[in-house]
Amino acid sequence: MRVRTIERDGTRVSDSPRTPAVSRAERGCSARQKLLQELGGQHIPFLSPTDTGFQQLWESSYSGLALRQAESLPSDLHERVRSALRSLQRRGCLFRDLVRIRGRDVFTAVSRALVGRPGDTYRYLGTRLFALPWHEEERDGGAADVCCDRELSDACRALWELNQFFCQDVERREAAGGQGTSDDPPKGQGGSEDLPEGQGVSDDPLEGQGGSDDPPGGQGSSEPDALGTGLADPRFNITLLNYMDPAAMKDLKEEPYYGMGKMAVSWHHDENLVPQSPVAVYNCSSPDEKGAGSQDGEVDGACWRVGLKVAWDIHTPGLALPLQSGDCYYMRDDLNRTHQHCVLAGGTPRFSSTHRVAECSTGTLDYIQRRCREALENLHVDPDTGSKTLRSLQPSALQLSEEIHNEVEFEWLRQYWFQGRRCAPFCSWWSKPMEQLEESWDQMESMTQLALAAAEDEGSSEERRREVAETLLAALTDRQEQRQTWRDRCQSSLAQTLPPEEAPVNRPYWGEDDPPRPLPFDLTDIISRVESLLWRL
Ligand SMILES: O=C(O)CCC(=O)C(=O)O
Ligand SMILES: [Fe+2]
């Protein structure tokens, strides 16, 4: 498997709707230009709650958006979540990610941490984040197998409780009404809520996630606060935390299409979610506040807002929804697919906890461990001599193990080490599994070497040698390219700006002076050997 460069929806426009509208058109780009041309440098209207028609717009064009006001969440939950966010921030658990957007490396404007079901990962903008595990069980005294200290395990547990709250809320709404479609009335949640609709132009993730996915499974109405009773199937498996202090960020981009103001997160669709699954967001702009959330936070500056627009549409007005500290909002139904959202910076530092149903079919530790076992089934190690042989030279068997080899190397090991040792100071959960994956990968290096020997074995039939060589050539070419890409990412000028603990590590890496390994790191010569073999056979 190769690294997917999924900046799907590569619909990034430019920062200013004016100039780019023309120049992009000249370059003959996509449908987006047409929209921008139509726009001709004008801003598209957008509505805020004080504008006439706001509610109608919400209901007609943004009905997948639902707001749950701070007062409708239990105040002790607010308190625990705020305290968790403060702890994670104080302990340095949030980082700006060095992501990849359209082939360019960029730091996210917000600092992030992923917390979730143990072993889950979340991939966005070419980056796989590895979850700090949330702890469902209350920690007893001196539990031994812990990966982090008490303060952090309590923090992660508070986020799990918030997650449970959201799971149950979504479940309750679904039961109450909607079958996941968007026709629920905008009411919806218990406390207070409102919803919107609107839309915008097309656009882009300048820094947000670029993919397109979908949102919520719909929910219907619901009652206010209660946590509901039924045990909700924990649909949200991860939360991506965001933090930004606007005072520390000089060059936030202006929202280009509507003139909504400075953006902390540019227009994007959330990537890599289960289709139609909901997203639930907890907004916290005053983590130091006591009591249930409220107006404060906003006194010394503008309010934080979430902006929404309809994808590929310049006729429907956009929507800007102000958020008080403690307010939550949901993106349900198809909203994430049909619309884009952005985050408009307010005047105070702000956290958000964004709960998602990540598409994890190839993104859990269990999954990749299973894949490694599958690949290694084709390796036989003589128990007496330790000598290694391949059980089968069938192209399908070789192809499988070579693919898994690439998958574990590029989707797991290099992704992990690219993020440096940044989480090591406070969480050891991934250390051992990563060592084990590296051991499996190491065995796969031997398997590739054995396959190469089979291709070059003059005692074998030409047909067999050709098949083996062809299979190898494809996998090795891919491997060589991806190693190059990762090496470049590790050496980029932005990567050099990181402190040593956070700096990308190009691992696995070995050079000529290191102890001998089955194959060299640089596969150029091996690839030439296989190519010339194919010429001859
Ligand atoms: O912070 C928010 O309200 C939303 C952030 C967001 O869109 C994201 O992290 O994908
Ligand atoms: Fe988002």
TrEMBL record:
Chain segments annotated as transmembrane: none
Comp. bias (Low complexity): 212-225
Keyword field contains Iron: yes
Reactions accelerated catalytically: N(6)-methyladenosine in U6 snRNA + 2-oxoglutarate + O2 = adenosine in U6 snRNA + formaldehyde + succinate + CO2; an N(1)-methyladenosine in tRNA + 2-oxoglutarate + O2 = an adenosine in tRNA + formaldehyde + succinate + CO2; a 5'-end (N(7)-methyl 5'-triphosphoguanosine)-(N(6),2'-O-dimethyladenosine) in mRNA + 2-oxoglutarate + O2 = a 5'-end (N(7)-methyl 5'-triphosphoguanosine)-(2'-O-methyladenosine) in mRNA + formaldehyde + succinate + CO2; a 5'-end (N(7)-methyl 5'-triphosphoguanosine)-(N(6),2'-O-dimethyladenosine) in U6 snRNA + 2-oxoglutarate + O2 = a 5'-end (N(7)-methyl 5'-triphosphoguanosine)-(2'-O-methyladenosine) in U6 snRNA + formaldehyde + succinate + CO2
Classification via InterPro entries: AlkB-like_sf, FTO, FTO_C, FTO_C_sf, FTO_cat_dom
GO biological process: DNA alkylation repair; regulation of multicellular organism growth; RNA repair
Keywords: Cytoplasm, Dioxygenase, Iron, Metal-binding, Nucleus, Oxidoreductase
Sequence ranges of Basic and acidic residues compositional bias: 1-12
Annotated segments matching region Disordered: 1-27, 176-231, 493-513
Cofactor(s) the protein needs: Fe(2+)
GO cellular component annotations of the record: cytoplasm; nuclear speck
Residue ranges of domain Alpha-ketoglutarate-dependent dioxygenase FTO catalytic in the record: 51-360
Pfam families named in the record: FTO_CTD, FTO_NTD
Subcellular location: Cytoplasm; Nucleus speckle
EC main group: oxidoreductase
Enzyme nomenclature, EC number: 1.14.11.53
Subunit-level organization: Monomer. May also exist as homodimer.
Protein family per UniProt: Belongs to the fto family.
Name of this chain's protein: Alpha-ketoglutarate-dependent dioxygenase FTO
Organism: Conger conger (Conger eel)
